[in-house]
Amino acid sequence: MQDLYQQESARLLGVAKRIARDNALAEDIVHDAFIKIWTRAASFDPARGSARGWIFIVTRHLALNFIRDNAREVQVSEHSEMALHDLASMQTSSGNVDSFDYRARSGRIYVCLEQLEPARRNCILHAYVDGYSHSQISQKLGTPLGTVKAWIKRSLVVLRECMG
Amino acid sequence: MTRSPEGESPDNIDELASEYVLGTLPAEQRIKIKKRLAQDADLQTAVDAWEQRLLALTELAEPQPPSALLWRRIERSVNSTDRRASGVAATAKPTSWWNLLPLWRGLAGTSLVATLLLGSILLTRTAVVNPTTYLVVLVAPQNQAPGWVIQASNPREIQLIPLEVAQVPADKVLQFWTKADGWQAPVSLGLVKPGQTFSVPLDNLPPLEPNQLFELTLENPNGSQTGKPTGPIQFIGRAVKVI
Asked: Which domains does chain B have, with CATH numbers?
C-alpha cells in the first residue's frame, strides 16, 4: 500500500483537491480513500478494473459525496438564467474555447471527446474533473440549465457509442 | 429524472449510471443509487463500465504533492484498523455492529470534519449564540450525510435538532441512544419524530463527556423491547467539546 501511496498520492490529491477545492479537505479525502481501500481490500474484484483505478474511483466519489452533501446550492433562477444567456451570447468565448487541455492525452476517451463540440466537451470535463453540478456548469458557461442538462445527456450517449 | 426502479430499460439504467459516474446527480439521487448498487447487478455493471470509460480523465487534475503528515496519518489509521481486525476475527463473524470499532472510529473522524464545518457555519451565521459546550453532528453511516445536530448548552440538557426530515418506514420509529466510553451499554433517550426538535433532560445520567456516542436507530413502533438498540443505525455521531 505504501507503494501505491508513493506512486499515486500526488495525483489522487490533485483529483480530490480539484473537486473539494481545499487542501486540508483533500488530504482528509485521500486519507479516507486509503483506509477504505485497506479495509475492503478483501472485497476487491480485479474483474471490475485495476486496483489503481479503484482508488481513483473511490477518491473521486468521496470528494463528490462531500461537496454534494455539504453544498447548499443556490439554484439559478429563471430570471438570472436569461441574464446569463444574454451574457453568454456577448461573450461567446466561454462556449467555443476549450477550458481543458485534453488534446495532448492518450486514451480512447480523448479521441471520443474530439467528436463533441467544445462547449459540450467543457460540460463533461467540468462535471468529471471539477465535480461541478448542472447548475454550476450553467453558471460557469453562461448557458441555460436545461441546455446544459440536455447537452450532457446527449454527450454521454455519444461517448458511449464512440467508446463501446 | 426520478424513475421507479421497476421497469427501467437498459438505456435508462445506462443513463443513470453515466450521470452517477460523471457526478452530476444531486445528493439525494447519489444516495439512492449507492444503496441500489449493492442489490442491482445491472446497475453495478453499467456503473463499472462508465468508471472505466471516464477514468483516464482523472489525469486532467494537476497532481499535488501531499504534506509529509498524510502518510503517517494513513499508517496510524491502518495500524489501528489491523489491531482491531485481529481482535474482531477471534470472536468470529456475528459481531454486533455495536462492537465494530472500525465503524465508530471512521464515523468519529468524519463527524469531526462535519462538526467543525457545521460549527463554523453556526458560529458565523448566528449573531448571539449561547455558550454551547458540546456539539454532535449525527451523520448517516452509509454516506456521512449530516441529518441531525445535538446542541448541549448546559450539561444537564441536550437538544436534538433536525437538519432535514429523516425518512422512516411507516411501521418503524427512530429511537435515540447514547453511550459514553466508560458505560457498559447504551441508554435510550426516547423516541424521536423525524423533522422535530427533541429536548432531553439528562437528569438520570452522568454529565456529558467528550467523545460520548449518540445515535438514532430504526426500531419497532414502541421502541426496542430489549432496552438496547436492535435495528439499523440511521444516524450516528460523537460529542465534541466546543471551545
From this structure: 10-60 (no CATH), 99-241 (2.60.40)
